[in-house]
Structure formats: structure tokens, C-alpha cells
Amino acid sequence: MEIGRPYSRLLQRLEKLNTLSAHDRQLIAELPLTVANFSANEEVVRHGESPSRCTLVLGGFLYGHKRVNGSRRQITSFFVPGDIADLHTLHLAPLDHSLSTLGPAVVAFMPHAAFREMLDRSPQLAEAFWRDTFIRLAILREWVTNLGRRDAIARVAHVICELALRLQRVDLAQDLCFSIPWTQTDLADACGISNVHANRVVQELRRLGLVEWDSRKVRIRDWDAVTKIADFSDEYLQLGGPAKRDPLLGQKVSEHA
Amino acid sequence: MEIGRPYSRLLQRLEKLNTLSAHDRQLIAELPLTVANFSANEEVVRHGESPSRCTLVLGGFLYGHKRVNGSRRQITSFFVPGDIADLHTLHLAPLDHSLSTLGPAVVAFMPHAAFREMLDRSPQLAEAFWRDTFIRLAILREWVTNLGRRDAIARVAHVICELALRLQRVDLAQDLCFSIPWTQTDLADACGISNVHANRVVQELRRLGLVEWDSRKVRIRDWDAVTKIADFSDEYLQLGGPAKRDPLLGQKVSEHA
DNA sequence: CGACCGATTGACACAGCTCAAATGAAGTGG
DNA sequence: CCACTTCATTTGAGCTGTGTCAATCGGTCG
To answer: What's the predicted TM-score (pTM) here?
Structure first.
């Protein structure tokens, strides 16, 4: 798990959310980090806790999940390197869900106090993180739609498409191919289906020649066909970068009256 | 539809998100508002648009929705008076979903420019709105769980519980009884089920003596039983008010080391 | 009165679930 | 290097919750 400077993928993502100054980058670099290693399937933050730090994913994957009737699991989000998985703990407590590792993972903890100080010093960063929060909202809206109105094969294909693009953004996927240490049961719990049916759907995607899936390695072989089955459109991921600003006014240029 | 001062319910909600000063309240009161009336089932903001203003609900209800394969509708959120339904347009464009009225509704449009200026002038307000965004995230996580892992009757009961509490917070529900101009098809599209099945579920809830539902009027007759069926817990709604602050430090008091 | 819309009902079909067992792959310890 | 365990994947066989289709009923409004 090559990591480079620990905050490099975070910066990479933030640069696409807002224009950052050298000063902003400096502030990020100065954040006090506590790096921690976790093995597969460990709970990093538990439902009900009120942590005083945020969790930045450096390597590997985290996922957020809730339980229904104390048993059935629903995965509500995946987090990839460069993501802050529990930014909301900055403003909400206690945690309404748990955060676990998919496979082995490396994370960095950032104390709330230092993080808030950083936000106070840079309105640009504060804006970038708020925008990041809005993008997470958009992703969850798409997940609600996915679970509410698509059949099993579309759900699975949709989740795979989303992960491919999110990983591509941080250079962890090339040619629509990426490694992720999940099981078919994990995928099932993200898609709201049973593990048995997840298996059948994966086999169907393989049979159609659309997706390869060999232990931990996923490859989308026919992007157009898969996005069609998944009813996938990338607009909600806001990959386009920061909204244009009018350099004279320093404000967003609105495209409408 | 009595409205009082247009921003009164918004203030009411914000007060629970952060401690506001007289100056903050003044800033809210000074926001330039354009009030508009809509009739039932009108699109207030359309998917793909890039509005330059936010939409505050004054009276009635809005809902956000997406379409799958261009036809099947999924409702992703309900908005009640005091809610800003499209705060994210402040930072994201174009819109990834549409915003429509459930019944007749009164809204106020607030120009982005004025809104941003207000946020620049008050870190407390900026924090309150960011926190509001995090609460919306929590609500969507719960919806994902609802659609992914609960059966039809639990989904319906869950949505009803959530609305009751959210409306109670702005004095639009008393004794777990509220009016909302939705149809069973609207409820079905929020729960990811068919309208026919929504009807059967509603009848079942009536038969069990748990919920009354006479054209537009919903009453929860047995809160404990309904929350049990719905697997409902209100923690995700963050009704508890703003996190306590240490008055000396002016920082959040963290409950954990 | 006719048109329309939402609620309701019935009959039937099927996607996806559950249960259970088999197979395969990857350690682990002797 | 082989038994043994463990965990993920795969397969099969029924079962059921929910969808679809179509018709009816009831209220409301012009």
C-alpha cells in the first residue's frame, strides 16, 4: 500500500473541489496526523461513540454501515483513499452508524480541534469541505434511488460503476479496473440484496461479458453496456471540478438568471 | 397556511443547530426573499438546472426526486416548512435531481450572493448550515437502510415516524398527528414499493390500529408499536439540539479521549 | 352529468429470499 | 508437506413478498 505523503490523495481530491492556495496546502500539510493500521473487518469507529477526531483513509477501504433489528446489515457508504469517512463527527455526536475496514487499511486520525482551527484560517478549505459534504449527499441520493427503484443486476452494476470512477479520480483504477478487498456479501449488503443473489448477479454480469471479478479484482469490460444496465450517469459525482469563478468578482458565475 | 414572519420556522430550526446571537438573527431577517406560490405537483426546480438562488419552504411540502430509466420515480427527500430544500446549489451545479411540490406550497427564494454574504459575516450561521447538511446526510443514510433492509410495512411506518418528528419540531404536528397532502403513490415512491402495495400496507397499519390515515391526515395511534414495527430510533434526526460547548474554551466538549 | 383522480380489490406472475449442502481456496500447525 | 479449519463462492430447491395488470368504487370539480 504505497501512500506517499499521507495527505497527498486528500489534497488531490480537494484541488478538484476548490482552488487552493499554497497557504491552504500548507495548512493541510501541517495537520497533526496519527497514523493507524487496521486489519480486515475491524470496526474503526463504533455506532454511539462521540470521537474527537476525524478519520482520513490513506490506504485500503472503509465502509459505513447500520444494522436493522440489530442484525441485518446495510452498508451506506464506501470510503476510498483520500476520503474523510466521518467528517460529520466535527458537528454531530454521537455517531449514527459504524465505520469498518473492508480489508486491511491504513488511516490517519486528525483531532477535531486542529481541524477546526485549519477551517477557521482558510475559507477556501472550509468551502471545499462543505462542498465535499454536498457531494456525499448527492451520492446518497443516488444510493436511495438505486435501492428503491432498480433491480438487483442494475444495483450491483451501479455500485461498481461508481467505485470505478471514484477510484479513477485518485489514480487507484486504470482502464476501469480496480482492486478492492470486498466479498460478495459486502456487495450484497451495499445493494440491499442477499449474498446468494449477489452471487447470481455477479455470475450473470460475467456471463454477459460485461464485468470480470476474480478475487478482489474487478474489471469493467464494456463501459457502455454496463452503464446502460445500471442506468448510470456520472453527473452526481461532480467530477467536473470546481465551479468556475469570475476572477474579477471572486464569486461563482451562475449560469442562470 | 399561516406563515408569520417568513423566516420564523427557519430560525426556529437554526436555533436548535447552533447558538445564535441577535446579530445572527438580524442577518437572517435581512435576507432578501422572493415569495412564490405553487400549486400541487409543480416542479419548483428542475433536474439539470443551475439556479442562482436557494429555496426555503414557508408552507406546504416539497420533495426531491430522481427518475430511473426516465420513468420510474424515486423520492429521495421530503422538505417541510423551515427547510432549505436545495442548499447544495450554493456549491454544486447542475442539479442532480428535481424539486416538486406535494400539494400547494409557498416558498421563498434567496439569492446565492446574499446568502453567501450572510455566511461570510457569521461563522455561527455558517456552522449551523453545515451542521444542517450533516443532518441531511444522516437522514439519507437512514433512508438507504430503510430501502435496503426493511420490508414494506416497516419502510412505510419508518417514513411516517420521521415526518411526525420533523413536523413536531416546527410545530406542525401535535400528538403525533399531522396533515400532509400526499397520495399513497407518493408514499410508495418514497419507500421504493408499488402504489398497490403501499395501499395494502396502509390498510394493514390501519387494521392493526397503529395508524389513522384519512385523506391527507395522518395520526400515529400507538407510537411504541409503530416504532417497533419500523425499527425506528430518532437518534439520526439529531433532535437533541446543538452539542454542548465549554463556555470557557468556546469549543465542543468531547465525550471521548 | 361527465371526467378525472385516488383508493381499493382480485388474480396471477416472478424476482429475489431462505435454507441447506457442496465445492474451492487459503491459511495454520504439526 | 499433509491434515484440518475457516471462509468465500457456488448450486439447488422451494417459498413468499411484492409487482403488474385490470377492473371497480368513490369523491370532487367544472
So the answer is: 0.92
